[in-house]
């Protein structure tokens, strides 16, 4: 509820965009939005105190809700098919259910939850076939993007890939999966954009967004972050060598291995077969 220090006024004239309190109160209030967020004073002009939404507070709280649920699912505290209690979350964070439901919708788009009418939100369960299919499609699409990007990437962009990967190396050493995951996305997005194919980028973005949970869980496996950094080094060198076939091969292999680690479990290891060893030897790593 919004609290403002002002004289009590019995009559209020309502407008489409704001509520007006008579001049003696000298306050103009912007209409509360559906989230019932506290408003903060932003400016004073001609005796009028203007109120602004505390957006930053709302977004911070929203991120806390998202992280709480994501962590509970990836850690196994919330298991596949289990219901996520909306009232408990609302009570825990001291908010209405509206932002909770908003968070549910985002988590549904990321593959963490599914919202069932009259039942609520439950944790999504992926079959081995669904995991295999996702990574198979991802490997083909991203591999093609890498192939096309090879001729378009500038030296400056390749240097940026190196810088991103060095940051990933540090995060892998610190075992900081949350920040690693975010910056890992930047690495792949950079060369996808360089492919200069809008439809391809839209297809990949939509696919990886829907299966964010799988990608996060794959990178969370023991040793997987460090292996990912090593794979990136080879990909970068293929880009620098302007070898589109090798770049495509390495990116596809990167995606396929991510899926294999997720399905098989255990520590992440990356053995190379004879063909892969020959391909990797073509670049100076």
**N- to C-terminal distance:** 60 Å
Helix content: 55-70%
Order of the strands making up the biggest sheet:
1-2-3-5-4
Number of helices: 11
Q: Choose one word for the global shape.
A: elongated
Describe this structure as you would to a colleague.
The protein is α+β, with helices and mostly antiparallel strands. The protein has three domains: about 15-55, no CATH class; about 55-125, Winged helix-like DNA-binding domain superfamily/Winged helix DNA-binding domain (Arc Repressor Mutant, subunit A); about 130-280, Up-down Bundle (Four Helix Bundle (Hemerythrin (Met), subunit A)). It is built from eleven helices and seven strands. It has a five-stranded mixed β-sheet, with no helix packed on it. Strands 6-7 form a two-stranded antiparallel sheet. α4 (about 130-150) packs across α6. The longest helix is centred in the middle third of the chain and has 22 residues, at about 130-150. The model is unreliable at about 1-60 and about 265-285 (pLDDT under 50).
Give a brief outline of the structure.
The chain has 285 residues and is an alpha+beta fold. It has eleven helices and seven strands. 27% of the residues are buried.
